[in-house]
Amino acid sequence: MSVTLDFEKSVGELESKLTELRHMSSTGEMNIGSEVKRLQDKTEKLLAKLYKTLTPWQKVQVARHPERPHTGNYIDALITDFTPLAGDRTFAEDAAIVGGLGRFRGHPVIVMGHEKGRDTDLRIKHNFGMPRPEGYRKAARLMQLADRFQLPIITFVDTAGAHPGLDAEERGQSEALARCLEVSAAVNVPILTTIIGEGGSGGAIALAFANVVMMLEHSIYSVISPEGCASILWRTRDKKEEAAIAQKLTAQDLKQFGIIDKIIPEPLGGAQRSPSTVIQTVGDALEKALKPLLSLDGKVARSQRRAKFLAMGRAGLV
C-alpha cells in the first residue's frame, strides 16, 4: 500500500522493514523467514489495535483513502454484461456519476454510483466524485428506465457532496437533487445502496433513498463534512476532529440510530488493504439483501421505502 495515513505511521515503518526483509530473502542473501514471520505478526497486531479504537476523525481519513475500491471497481467485479449509459438528455454527460445496465449475479439490474477517479487525470475527468446537476438528472433518468423495465436499482455512494461551483448552481443543482429524490421515492422497484467511502450531504442521499442502506465498516455518512461543520460552528477548520465526534457520522453510530440497515465488515486495516476481499463481501451482502426484495410487489417496495425514511423524520421529533 503506497499511501500511509497519519495515525498509521508506526505500521508503515514496520511494513517498510518487512518489504526490505522479504527482498533480502528473495535474493538469497540470507534465510530470515522467522524474522519476517515475527514482524508480520507484530504488524497485524498493531494494525488490529489501531483499527479497533479508531476515532471518528480517523474513520473520515480511512473513508477518504485514495486506494479504497471505487464504484468502477465494484461494477467491474460484480456486474456482468455491463452497458454504460451516458447523458442527461438535457445538457451534458457528467462523469462524476457512472451507471448503466448489467447483470448482478445473473439478475438484470440498473447500477450507478459516484466515481472519484484513481489518478490525477481521472479525478479531474470525474470531478473528484462531485456531480453537477446533469449527473443527478442522469441518475434520475436511469431510475425511470429501471422503473419502466422493472429492474432493481443498485447504487454505490462515494462523494464529498454535490459540486458547489457557480456553474452547477446556474444549472439548477438544488432542483436536480430534489428531482432525483422525487424519482427515488416514486419508482416501483427496489433500491439497494452501499456507502463505500464518503457519503456527503445531499449529493449522497440523492442516490441513497433506498429500501436497504448499507455502509462499509469504515465509511462515513453525514449532512456536511467535518471541516465544513467546524468552519460554520467554530469559524475554523482546526476543530474538524471535534466536529467529527459531534456529527455521529460513523457506520456504528448510524446503525444505532436506525439510519442504515447493515454494516459490512472490512478487512483488517480497511478496504484499501484488500480491495478484492471487500468487493466480494459487498457482493454477498447485496445478494442477500436483494433476494427478499425481488418477490415484493413494486408498490409494496415503494411504500416500504417511503415509510422507512418518514420514520427517521418522525423519530427525530420525539
**Fraction of helical residues:** 40-55%
CATH topology of the largest domain: 2-enoyl-CoA Hydratase, Chain A, domain 1
Largest sheet properties? 8 strands, mixed
Over the alpha carbons, how many angstroms does the gyration radius reach?
21 Å
Distance between the termini: 46 Å
> Any idea how many domains?
2
Low-confidence stretches: none
By DSSP, the count of extended strands is 8
Give the averaged pLDDT, no decimals: 91
The succession of helices and strands, N to C, reads HHHHEEEHHEHHEHEEHHHEHH
Shape: globular
Number of helices: 14
> Which oligomeric form is depicted?
single chain
How would you describe the overall organization of this protein?
The chain has 318 residues and is of the alpha/beta class. The protein has two domains: 12-53, no CATH class; 61-317, 2-enoyl-CoA Hydratase, Chain A, domain 1, CATH 3.90.226. Helices cover 52% and strands 16% of the residues. It has 14 helices and eight strands. The protein has helices spanning 9-26, 33-52, 56-63, 71-78, 120-125, 133-149, 166-170, 173-186, 201-205, 226-233, 240-247, 251-257, 275-294, 298-317; strands at residues 79-84, 97-104, 107-114, 153-159, 191-200, 212-216, 220-222, 262-264. Strands 1, 2, 3, 4, 5, 6, 7 and 8 form an eight-stranded mixed sheet that branches. The model has no long low-confidence stretch (mean pLDDT 91).
